[in-house]
């Protein structure tokens, strides 16, 4: 049976989006807190104690594979009704800089841009919940 934890999904999303590798992130499976392991952050234990913990209390959070975001863009494009906008978005995601170009095209279509943000949030939240479930955790929003 999955452990129920109150988790701020927005904070968990930040951890999954952080590809800088400047900091490590963990989920405290006792409190549901998403922790950035940085010297200046308030932590329940020292960074060393968290990293060396063998009880399973702290679950390491790896950044999400950028290919997932690319697939989200592809799947969103397939839902765009305006064929000319769909064509522009298809061209935008070809090659390096795809994410920036995709967002640049959507700036000119505010309703579709808003729809994109909702679409992307649903997709990412689904992956976060799947990751939690794979670790026998059920998120209670909070």
Give the arrangement of secondary structure elements.
Layout: E1 3-7, H1 9-17, E2 24-28, E3 34-37, H2 47-52, E4 58-61, H3 66-77, H4 83-92, H5 98-107, H6 110-134, E5 137-141
Helix pairs in contact: 3-6, 4-5
Task: Describe the 3D structure.
The protein is of the alpha+beta class and 142 residues long. The chain has two domains: 3-64 and 132-141, no CATH class; 66-125, no CATH class. It has helices at 9-17, 47-52, 66-77, 83-92, 98-107, 110-134, and strands spanning 3-7, 24-28, 34-37, 58-61, 137-141. The strands form two sheets. A three-stranded antiparallel beta sheet has the order 3-2-4. Strands 1-5 form a two-stranded parallel ribbon. The chain starts with a strand and ends with a strand.
